[in-house]
Amino acid sequence: MKQINVGVLGFGTVGAGVVRLLVENRDILRSKVGADLHLKYVADIDTETDRGIALGDGVLISDAHKMLDDPETDIIVEMIGGEGIAKEFILKAIRNGKHVVTANKALIAGHGNEIVEAARQHGVDFAYEASVGGCMPIIKSVRESLVGNRIHAMTGILNGTCNYILTKITEEGSTFEDALREAQAEGFAEADPTLDVEGGDTAHKLAILNALAYGMRINLKDIYVEGITRITPLDIAFAAEFGYKVKLLAISKNRGDAVEARIHPTMIPLNNPLSNVGGSLNAVTISADAVGDMMLYGHGAGMMPTGSAVVGDIADIARNIMTGATGRIPVLSYQPEAIREVPVLPVDEIETHYYFRFAAADRPGVLSKISGILGDLGISIASVHQKGRKTEGAVPIVMLTHIAREADVRKALTEIRNLNIVCKEPVLIRIEQ
Amino acid sequence: MKQINVGVLGFGTVGAGVVRLLVENRDILRSKVGADLHLKYVADIDTETDRGIALGDGVLISDAHKMLDDPETDIIVEMIGGEGIAKEFILKAIRNGKHVVTANKALIAGHGNEIVEAARQHGVDFAYEASVGGCMPIIKSVRESLVGNRIHAMTGILNGTCNYILTKITEEGSTFEDALREAQAEGFAEADPTLDVEGGDTAHKLAILNALAYGMRINLKDIYVEGITRITPLDIAFAAEFGYKVKLLAISKNRGDAVEARIHPTMIPLNNPLSNVGGSLNAVTISADAVGDMMLYGHGAGMMPTGSAVVGDIADIARNIMTGATGRIPVLSYQPEAIREVPVLPVDEIETHYYFRFAAADRPGVLSKISGILGDLGISIASVHQKGRKTEGAVPIVMLTHIAREADVRKALTEIRNLNIVCKEPVLIRIEQ
Predict the structure, then answer these.
(1) Do the chains contact at B21 and A294, CB–CB below 8 Å?
(2) Rounded to whole angstroms, how far apart are CA atoms B268 and B432?
């Protein structure tokens, strides 16, 4: 049986998941792939800690270059993360003619165009299913299953930390700060949660999906990103009253010559299947001309789910090696010559429904002034709820709008803010129906 | 640009969906696949009806053998259905060295082992993503994405007709007969709905999934099949009172040396994501060692969703042709030599929770006799509801059990039936927690 040699860079949690699957499920992989996916090297600066996985002599090494320079290693699995040494190692592996598998969304979102071009020049495969949606086969679905479709839109819950925190706030009425602390205690959030809770990680993933779905160069910098740090139990409670849940969504829409791409907390109705995706789970809905709406749902992160996606990529590459079919599918879904520069629309140009909460001064005429400004800017109010409960000297006025243009909404909020009739920064949450 | 010639057998609804995608999305397919998927022939005995798709001169033919014998046609798409002429044409295409794509679950479930062996002998690809779950990439997910997993179980809503009917009964309190008539009127059910409503179609699909997931030969005949024709609004209303919905589920469980495989109406709790899959939609949950639980959700049938899956298969095969990688993935997921005869357990050996409804005679001691028989057979009752409302001279007694063995349950129901204290056949619906 043919042997394909695999080297894993980084023996942290996710690296250990890959190693465990390659070791423990080696027999089942052989019976499916028809080759032996042999774990030749695992490189980590820490070669002492016991990860509970028995490795043969000489497999665990501290010098990554030993595997990168080894002519017998066919596939390099980068599990280090970040945009520093990981990028350097990946580019060296590619230059040395090795196929590369990674889960590193930050790296692909930031430097993917360069890496993909390097892989093309050196005739190697570069695979990254685990970078978006963990074990869910979102990249394979977009690149392969939906190949005959024109994709209209994608909507995803792509960050388990944020979904865990929002679920806690929704179900237990916790504040953001308390929910974050709990998420950290239970291992669902990092010590520095910035990349997750500010939406950056979700943006990395959407940048990758956009390229695959719309045939555009990877473009991270133009995606509008708003995280969940300002979400309060009060707004989530109001959302529930209106029949909505609040989720951090990645939303992209194909608008022909441009793409709408944004990450923000979003109210979605309870009959939207994404509203039932709780805890740290992930899900993505894809709308396309032939399939209509389709959804994938599963664990978006974690040692074994991520390991599963990485091993799926290893097997795909192994099958290409065995049949001489490297480069069988273009890395970014479209043939390189078909990839275009598609602009991402400024957020000002999006049109959607809005939820506003104003902390209004408790005196006559306030509601009329607010609604006057909205009306002057063509923002039509679908419903208003002014509740009696005065908190911190102000009355909460909640409004839901019909479809409005973001630029008008921003202008209106600035004017309302300047009136000195609202006591705090107005709250704005976008609604997707 | 390389041209891959495609011939479509059968220009009915689904065949027309494939043709439409190949024609209308030809440019996007080119920009992704890097080849021209050229529709060379469409064969149908009806060459007169206008399907609203413009085909070139000489493309629509009535003689299928013209494309089967044409040395330039690379891929044959069988969209005729059934186990008669479709099988004959597929085997001829394979013998002539052509790759084959089909959506024909009945044929694969009944004759798949033979067809797969023929494809192997003749070195051609045989693809059938559209046979299970319509546009959902369930076959690709099991064969490729989950390749590193040991699959523990699969649970699916795999028949849109049944799901549509059960949704109608649930939401509108219709009888089965009325809901079926509505489904027929709206095009969700065939004039002869037997294969759908008796569970046969769902069994075809589960037989295919079982082979892929567990490395077994396709085995349709041993799957336990019970349809939805006896489901009443009363039982669905009771289910709702207990917090359950009733769905026709395909359930399979890997029990090591054997497989549990059954199709039957099933009560599932509202927090099970499958319970929210309404109308004609399909969904499948897969449980596996690395991914945990994962779900796919989408349109399981219909012209364009099915067309999308077929075109995905055509593109996969085209990519294999272009890179010389035919046979890159074994048709049934496992290498032929790794496929085993895995027995399907008799339904008597399953263990699950049960819902019973007895139409009990309205006299003293009935409940004690029923519960006595259940107790003697080791069937432990979780809850009993005896409602006052007497209908047709009988009182409904509803019971939910703890985990019990099917053989014991059947024995108990026979004994209860023989007591002459129940006026009608007891109702049994299995519950999955």
Answers:
(1) no
(2) 5
